[in-house]
Known about the structure:
- With 355 residues, this protein is of the alpha/beta class.
- The protein has a domain at 156-290 and 317-352: Dihydrodipicolinate Reductase, domain 2 (2-Layer Sandwich).
- The chain is 31% helix and 24% strand.
- The protein has helices spanning 28-40, 53-63, 72-76, 90-102, 117-130, 144-154, 194-205, 297-308, 319-336; strands spanning 20-24, 44-49, 67-69, 83-86, 106-109, 134-136, 161-169, 208-218, 223-232, 237-243, 253-256, 260-263, 273-277, 280-284, 349-352.
- The strands form two sheets. Strands 14-13-12-11-7-10-9-8-15 form a nine-stranded mixed beta sheet, with helices on one face. Strands 3-2-1-4-5-6 form a six-stranded parallel beta sheet, with helices on both faces.
- Strand 4, helix 4 (90-102) and strand 5 (106-109) form a beta-alpha-beta unit.
- The longest helix has 18 residues, at 319-336.
- The termini are far apart.
- Mean pLDDT is 94; it is low at 341-349.
- Bound molecules: NADP nicotinamide-adenine-dinucleotide phosphate.
Amino acid sequence: MTTVFPEVEVEPLRGGATLRWGVIGPGEIANDFTATLHAHSDQRVVAVGSRSPERAAAFAARHGVPGVHGSYEALVADPTVDVVYVASPHPQHLEHALLAIAAGKHVLVEKPMTTSAADTRTLATAARQAGVFAMEALWTRYLPGTTVVARLLADGVLGDVHLVTVDVGWPHEPDPTDRMFDPAAGGGALLDAGVYGHWFARFATGAPVTSRTTGVVSDRGVDLQSVTVSTADGGAQSVVTTSMTAWTPGLAVIAGSRATVRWTDHFVFPASFALHRGRDVDHWADPSGLHGREGLVWQAAALARYVADGHTESPLHTLDDSIGLATSLDAARAALEPGPGPAAPGVSGHVTSTP
Ligand SMILES: NC(=O)c1ccc[n+]([C@@H]2O[C@H](COP(=O)([O-])OP(=O)(O)OC[C@H]3O[C@@H](n4cnc5c(N)ncnc54)[C@H](OP(=O)(O)O)[C@@H]3O)[C@@H](O)[C@H]2O)c1
């Protein structure tokens, strides 16, 4: 049997709606985001704000950005900016998003939107009250392959989803000065790569109604590795594995009563997957030619379309979805917190002496 796969449902990167972007926090991801917008789309970064005028100027020179601001306050006040991309570390997302929202700007906030469900709710409320567009940069949701799988799910091609397995982990060299190992800097695998795995489980099964997490925690209290087993309304189960001490291949699987989707390369990035029906296998490959973080561009094109159409949230990942995702991450992290007395098996984390 040969499957006729649904069409991808993405906003065109050229010739569609456009916005003028301002960047807060010109670090690693802001660099990759700006590079792919300029190389592959009509979206334009028109201004950058840094805590340091020199870093803002260096970023602007690298990417041909005309607006250079030595403070985030000046960036959000720039009248040439329509939408602010918040690319600071996650503990700073709330403050910087609120700054942009208060200035009347739309916001795209890097993942995780904030470091807790309570803060994500605060951000969502502020955006809704201001009437501006706000979206978590869950860019994987906007990739061509993800839109095809979303259509397969919506059309019932997989039947009833029963089981989802997903892993996502990248190793970080033990380094006490690295923000990944610092609890005050939002360290830990769950708030980093784990965001993708917990989002994916919700994407495939809906929100969990019960969850158990076990894992390994550093002696400073950041989660180094964890496994979360959840059951969603209707009974679908998911297993989400995340790590910052080991690389995992990111080969997600959605198993249904009629068919199973199995990613054949890392699901976070522009990827290929296989659709299995018993022994029959059909393959779908990303036709875009974009790789890795070049895929950050689709979320920007989608956001420009949503704003042009008068939306204030992404229909594919709403603010309530961001609050729900943050709730899952809160629960997983809380389960790993060392409590008084001996750890209950399968609930608390094992503490290791890694930095
Ligand atoms: N979507 C993805 O694939 C992806 C990949 C990597 C990271 N991320 C997310 O993007 C965010 C930024 O990560 P990154 O790797 O780009 O970080 P980064 O390289 O450290 O850059 C963050 C920038 O934020 C600014 N900043 C503001 N307050 C800061 C503070 N208190 N400490 C440090 N920097 C501060 C700094 O710029 P100035 O001081 O010059 O203003 C810094 O360059 C994180 O939330 C992360 O989860 C997403």
